[in-house]
Specification:
The chain is mostly helical. It has nine helices and four strands; from the N terminus they run αβααααββαααβα. It has helices at 2-7, 15-24, 26-36, 49-56, 60-86, 119-130, 134-143, 146-152, 163-180, and strands spanning 12-14, 94-96, 113-116, 155-158. The strands form two sheets. A two-stranded parallel sheet has the order 1-2. Strands 3-4 form a two-stranded parallel ribbon. Helix 2 (15-24) packs across helix 5, helix 3 packs antiparallel against helix 5 (60-86) and helix 6 packs across helix 7.
Length: 181
């Protein structure tokens, strides 16, 4: 959905990209290494996201610790991007954030849209887009709080079926958001 809106000319802040940047920030990197050790480093001294993911998606306490390290930086960066985009006077700005509620970013947006798909579809998409094996994809989907997210959202868009049908739903939602803007 986000890429569709981006192609239509609306700015999108991708929280996953902000997270990647957090892992490259030297202050964050040092804190993560201090907590998790050198075993999470790649050949060139960068965070090996797969190694770190294996740890944090198997241990809820490790995930909480990682989040405590990176989330404050990510929130600050996201709010800075929002501020910069406010200056441009776009009628809408989109935030793609799988962990919106965990970071309390929902307090900084006007509406929350939950993109829904079956568990089977979510697992398959993770395997295809990220190259995860079945066990890893299942572990990551299990860590999501789908039911809670859905209940808290202002809008739910079903993402099953063709791209054409998804884009039609996206356009209907866009019209509603612009009318409420």
């Amino acid at each position: 959905m986000s890429r569709y809106y981006e192609r239509k000319g609306y700015p999108v802040v991708y929280e996953d990209e902000v997270g990647h940047q957090a892992l490259a920030d030297q202050r964050i990197l040092k804190k993560i290494i201090c907590f998790f050790g050198n075993g999470i480093l790649g050949a060139h001294g960068e965070i090996d996201r797969k190694a770190l993911g294996n740890i944090v998606f198997s241990d809820p306490e490790a995930l909480r610790s990682l989040n405590a390290i990176v989330h404050p930086w990510m929130i600050s960066q996201t709010l800075s991007r929002f501020s910069a985009l406010e200056e441009t006077r776009y009628p809408l700005v989109f935030l793609e954030a799988a962990i919106l509620y965990e970071m309390s970013l929902d307090r900084h947006v006007d509406s929350v849209v939950f993109v829904d798909a079956t568990q089977k579809t979510r697992i398959q998409r993770l395997m295809t887009s990220r190259g995860y094996d079945l066990a890893e994809a299942q572990k990551r989907v299990k860590a999501q709080r789908i039911g809670q997210y859905k209940k808290k959202s202002d809008f739910v868009i079903r993402n099953e079926g063709t791209l054409e049908s998804l884009y039609q739903r996206c356009d209907r939602l866009l019209n509603v958001l612009l009318a409420n803007g």
